[in-house]
């Protein structure tokens, strides 16, 4: 039986600070439940103490990735916040040109494929969607495009038949031939790689900003601004809050709310 490795209050503070520096995520509000979950996770890393784990976390690239995977497990599903997705696709169609969309974070791909499905239903083909996430497990799942259970509950039976194959009764595999180009990258929004991805007309960043502290939010807006095309749009989740900044102006339209690059 593995001996539990529990962090002291100071060690937990240091862990939260390291994660914030790497990813911008503020785990302070989850510190009590985090401390309980961390014990089992750290015990599985072969560290003999929490202090040893922290030392390795600062220098070991794979441990950093495994730890990010551990703290960024989230739930998503197809056609989540559907009204906003429809508004995004309506805007894409109005541009009448090739459009690049970034989904950050993309989790296990449901948001990217949802936009691709809506685009196909609106006869939009000149579209590329890139999904990024810092969790390596969800990126691999997105690339595989295999889904089951609750994540499919908003899809109609006709949508499942058209956009998925169902060789296994429980597993639905996305039919990529029916969709625009969708690709996925393991990427941290605060790393240099992020700025080299592409220029995008639209960024969709839903249910990520809510986990960031103020400084990380401002830094993220600056980085979004750099990779957006002129007058590019940023769409955020219902629970996300963007502080006032010099990079974007909030726009209220009859179809919904978005942020436009200044």
UniProtKB/TrEMBL annotation:
<feature type="domain" description="CheR-type methyltransferase">
    <location>
        <begin position="1"/>
        <end position="262"/>
    </location>
</feature>
<dbReference type="InterPro" id="IPR000780">
    <property type="entry name" value="CheR_MeTrfase"/>
</dbReference>
<keyword id="KW-0949">S-adenosyl-L-methionine</keyword>
<keyword id="KW-0489">Methyltransferase</keyword>
<keyword id="KW-0808">Transferase</keyword>
<protein>
    <submittedName>
        <fullName>Chemotaxis protein CheR</fullName>
    </submittedName>
</protein>
<dbReference type="InterPro" id="IPR029063">
    <property type="entry name" value="SAM-dependent_MTases_sf"/>
</dbReference>
<dbReference type="Pfam" id="PF01739">
    <property type="entry name" value="CheR"/>
</dbReference>
<dbReference type="InterPro" id="IPR022642">
    <property type="entry name" value="CheR_C"/>
</dbReference>
<dbReference type="InterPro" id="IPR050903">
    <property type="entry name" value="Bact_Chemotaxis_MeTrfase"/>
</dbReference>
């Amino acid at each position: 039986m593995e001996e539990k490795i529990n962090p002291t209050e100071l060690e937990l503070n240091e862990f939260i600070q390291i994660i914030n520096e790497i990813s911008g995520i503020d785990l302070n509000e989850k510190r009590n439940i985090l401390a309980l979950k961390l014990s089992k996770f750290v015990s599985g890393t072969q560290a003999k103490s929490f202090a040893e784990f922290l030392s390795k976390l600062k220098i070991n690239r794979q441990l950093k990735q495994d730890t990010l995977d551990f703290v960024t497990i989230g739930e998503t599903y197809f056609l989540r916040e559907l009204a906003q997705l429809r508004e995004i696709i309506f805007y894409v169609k109005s541009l009448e040109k090739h459009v690049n969309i970034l989904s950050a974070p993309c989790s296990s791909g449901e948001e990217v494929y949802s936009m691709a499905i809506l685009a196909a239903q609106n006869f939009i083909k000149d579209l590329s969607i890139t999904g990024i996430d810092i969790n390596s497990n969800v990126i691999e799942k997105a690339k595989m495009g295999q889904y089951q259970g609750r994540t499919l509950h908003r899809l109609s039976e006709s949508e499942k038949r058209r956009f998925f194959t169902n060789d296994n009764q429980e597993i639905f595999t996305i039919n990529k031939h029916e969709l625009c180009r969708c690709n996925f990258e393991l990427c941290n929004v605060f790393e240099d790689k992020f700025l080299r991805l592409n220029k995008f007309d639209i960024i969709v960043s839903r249910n990520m900003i809510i986990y960031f502290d103020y400084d990380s939010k401002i830094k993220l807006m600056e980085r979004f601004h750099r990779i957006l095309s002129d007058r590019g749009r940023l769409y955020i989740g219902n629970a996300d809050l963007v502080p006032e900044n010099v990079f974007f102006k909030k726009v209220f339209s009859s179809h919904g709310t978005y942020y436009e690059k200044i």
